[in-house]
């Protein structure tokens, strides 16, 4: 199957509402997300008992209607809503059917109206089963992990669940006092009262619902990396507009702190390399959480990543994952797909970042990694369209590797200087926003306009929209 190349350079930009209506409904995640309204803010107050897996939640949501809105439809799964207010009014009908919450205000909300939802809910949260195994809220042996990609967010809060629908978040989480809570963004305050402790986090940069997370465990928190710099060097790095010094932390069980710090001992260099290649790190800080339970794969969330104790070696297979998850802060978290079909814009970039780090760290060059990935792909079935891989195969390794090869092809055509200018312009122009493949084509063609015959659409199309593997670039 071959998608015509004319699909590529379509119009970009437009209002959020226009983008939402183009992105939704998303055939990859039917039933998730609504184009009828946009959320600008989720304020989540959660009271949680680790011992009994009991969650009592209050979501205060600020939104705006895109249409004349008689009923507001949200995603919420496995939790029971007890009370709803719209703009402080109690005369509101609501019902739950399947994994949807329907809220009908006393009067319809005309298009363009700002409104507030207050939703009280509770239950025993658990992961949701889907095409991608279990996603969402998950109990650990002694704590909690939330892995929301792609449709796990409704397992713990009511939301407009689609990556095109980004909003700021506040988290106020109360749980047993002997646990540490890590959420997205910045820890604003914590206070203990008797045997309970409350943690407040602010995630001010817009965030997709699937990237929202809460991690609870018997974790210590330690800064990493900063000690490698003298204060004078720090000032120098900041003033010359070069890589910004980013506060980095590791949250881990005390017994895992030493192996965790050892595994992450080059992460600060990764951060510098990636800021040089991709532009400034987009968030206030970066925390690596190491859970006490082994994990199949590490997971990215906005401003943090989660690893298992089984990912903590100096071997390339682990080091590449540390680079991969860090790179998602630019590609996936700051710049987020507006439809899941474009998942290569996240996974292909994060995979290419592994190769960039490999070369920068003195291991195999990016070209060598590309060659070896190409050889691997050449003996696999060539029946996948990377630019629209189907919901079942959106996390197939071929999307990652071939997506990275598509970028390598772009680099070969543009040359290093223009290629990295494209990447930095890309992350700057679409910072905290939504992106499509067409946006990338327009950005690359703009930067490379002086190169005779250069056309990013023509370069990318065989990698993204044909099944047959193109020759190694
Ligand atoms: Zn990834």
Overview of the molecule:
- The protein is α+β, with helices and mostly antiparallel strands and 473 residues long.
- Strand 19 and strand 20 (304-307) form a beta hairpin.
- Helix 5 crosses helix 6 (344-360), helix 7 (366-378) crosses helix 8 and helix 8 (397-414) packs antiparallel against helix 11.
- It contains eleven helices and 22 strands.
- The chain folds into three domains: 5-21 and 338-465, Neutral Protease Domain 2 (Neutral Protease, domain 2, Orthogonal Bundle), CATH 1.10.390; 37-216, Sandwich (Immunoglobulin-like), CATH 2.60.40; 220-328, Neutral Protease, domain 2 (Orthogonal Bundle), CATH 1.10.390.10.
- The site of zinc ion (ZN) has 4 residues, from helix 6.
Quick synopsis:
Keywords: Aminopeptidase, Hydrolase, Metal-binding, Metalloprotease, Protease, Zinc. It contains eleven helices and 22 strands. By secondary structure, it is α+β, with helices and mostly antiparallel strands.
């Amino acid at each position: 199957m071959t998608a015509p190349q004319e699909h590529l350079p379509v119009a970009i930009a437009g209002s959020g509402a226009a983008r939402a209506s183009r992105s939704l409904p998303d055939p990859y995640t039917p039933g998730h997300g609504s184009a009828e309204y946009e959320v600008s803010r989720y304020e989540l107050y959660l009271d949680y008992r680790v011992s009994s897996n009991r969650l009592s939640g209050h979501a205060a949501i600020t939104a705006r209607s895109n249409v004349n809105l008689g009923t507001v439809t949200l995603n919420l799964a496995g939790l029971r809503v007890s009370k709803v207010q719209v703009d402080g009014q109690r005369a509101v009908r609501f019902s739950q059917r399947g994994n949807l919450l329907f809220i009908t205000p006393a009067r319809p909300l005309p298009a363009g109206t700002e409104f507030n939802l207050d939703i009280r809910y509770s239950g025993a949260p658990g992961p949701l089963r889907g095409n991608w195994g279990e996603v969402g809220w998950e109990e650990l042996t002694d704590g909690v992990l939330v892995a929301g990609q792609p449709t796990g967010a409704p397992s713990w809060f009511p939301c407009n669940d689609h990556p095109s629908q980004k909003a700021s978040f506040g988290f106020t989480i109360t749980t047993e006092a002997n646990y540490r809570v890590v959420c997205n963004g910045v820890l604003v305050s914590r206070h203990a009262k008797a045997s309970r402790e409350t943690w407040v986090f602010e995630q001010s940069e817009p965030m997709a619902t699937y990237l929202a997370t809460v991690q609870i465990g018997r974790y210590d928190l330690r800064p990493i990396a900063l000690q490698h710099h003298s204060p004078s060097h720090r000032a120098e790095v900041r003033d010359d507009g070069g890589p910004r010094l980013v506060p980095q932390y590791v949250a881990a069980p005390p017994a895992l702190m030493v192996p965790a710090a050892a595994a992450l001992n080059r992460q600060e260099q990764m951060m510098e390399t990636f800021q040089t290649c991709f532009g400034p790190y987009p968030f206030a800080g970066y925390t690596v959480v190491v859970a006490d339970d082994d994990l199949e794969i590490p997971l990215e969330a906005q401003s943090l990543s989660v690893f298992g104790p089984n990912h903590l070696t100096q071997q390339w297979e682990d080091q590449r994952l540390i680079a991969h998850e860090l790179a998602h802060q630019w590609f996936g978290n700051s710049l987020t797909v507006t439809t899941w079909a474009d998942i290569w814009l996240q996974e292909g970039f994060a995979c290419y970042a592994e190769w960039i780090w490999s070369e920068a760290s003195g291991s195999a060059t990016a070209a060598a990694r590309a060659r070896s990935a190409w050889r691997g792909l050449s003996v696999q079935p060539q029946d996948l369209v990377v630019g629209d891989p189907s919901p079942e195969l959106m996390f197939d390794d071929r999307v990652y590797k071939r997506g990275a090869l598509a970028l390598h092809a772009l680099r070969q055509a543009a040359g290093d200087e223009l290629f990295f200018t494209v990447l930095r312009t890309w992350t700057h122009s679409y910072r905290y926003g939504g992106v499509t493949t067409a946006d990338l084509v327009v950005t690359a063609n703009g930067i490379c306009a002086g190169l005779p015959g250069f056309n990013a659409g023509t370069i990318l199309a065989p990698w993204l929209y044909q099944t047959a593997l193109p020759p190694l670039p």
